[in-house]
Amino acid sequence: MRVPPLVANLLLRVSPWLLPIAAVAAMVELIGGGWDIQWHIRHVPEFFWTPPHIVLYSGAGVVLLATGAAFVLRWSGRSYPRSVRAGTAIAFAGAVLQFAAGGFDSAWHARFGADDSLSPPHVMLTAAMVITTLGIVLALHAWRRMEAAGGVRRASAWVAHAVSVTAMTWATWGLLFILLFPGLFRTNVLVEPFGLRLFTAAAFAGLLPLMVLTSARVVGRRGAATLSAAVQAGGALLITGLMGDLDPMTAPFAALFVLPGVLADLLYRPDSRGSLYVAIALGAILAQFAFLTGGVVDAMTRPDLIPVAAALAFAAGGVVAAILAERIGSAAEGLGAEPAGPAPVPA
Fold it and tell me: Which of 1, 172, 333, 336 is deepest in the core (most CB within 10 A)?
């Protein structure tokens, strides 16, 4: 199967930018998703075409187009490594599933009106986001190994790769929220019983170390973990501002959450001897930042009431996160990357 020559030439011209565009659009989509969660928590009157939904599905639309074009590249006349083909296929499949979930969500709202956090379309949508962003992370890893680019293209590729790791972490946060949040219509959001409360604390606490360690492990560039953490802090501030809750006096403290990225860049060397043990120690330490997070997760777990138990739960979450970061890195490298064939000269 081959696409028409005109389409093939166009795809080959824009191919270096498709995955970076998908990564940034995925982050925009996840910011819309985070905004939507706050919208739900605030009990703002619900319908499908809310501002958060518009941002969310606009980002998802760009992700669908970019990953779809990257997926079609295999029929453009150029030979691409199996790792690139596999990563783009995962990302595109997730993007298609997101739009299927969007149609499901629209029908659900039309039939039932306001819905709780744990609804079938929400589970389907957030799971699809995780699949999409993981696919982008893997595809960008493979693409960067394949293409010996320089200058702006090289910089944009690794920057977008770090952004895609943040998007993957946010998508995982969203899925955990959907599955573990007690419900939008409860007056007391504290998770019970106690064991589930500790599990919830560990799961959310592990996301920050998962993000910075995965960025350091997969992007493989000094500064990537710091950039991932900075994108997360900026996105959180943006959502707070969109909800009208941004306090100029406390906003500068958000920079504190960039520190885990700095520490990961300074202390974690994925290819060095004993790097996994360093990652595990860092994961357990960086997870303690969950004591500073606040917000709905704090209301769900109340770590201030059980500081010792919470610290141990956070440490456990950080250890698991370090192991997951290593596994994601191994998966990215294990896809295989035979050299690509020569690209045809565009007409």
Answer: 172
pLDDT (tens digit per residue) in 238-256: 998 888 888 887 778 888 9
**253-267, 303-317, 323-337: the lowest-pLDDT one:** 323-337
The span from the CA of 274 to the CA of 260, in Å, is: 20
Fold classification of 1-152 (topology level): Four Helix Bundle (Hemerythrin (Met), subunit A) (1.20.120)
* Residue among 206, 218, 314, 222 at smallest CA distance from 262: 222
Long-range contacts of 9-16 (CB under 8 A, 24+ apart): 9/346, 9/347, 11/69, 11/72, 11/73, 11/76, 12/73, 12/76, 12/77, 12/78, 12/343, 12/344, 12/346, 13/346, 14/69, 15/69, 15/70, 15/73, 15/76, 16/147, 16/149, 16/153, 16/157
Cβ atoms < 10 Å from Cβ of 256:
11
The closest of 21, 237, 261 to 139, measured between CA atoms, is 21
**Portions of the chain given CATH number 1.20.120:** 1-152
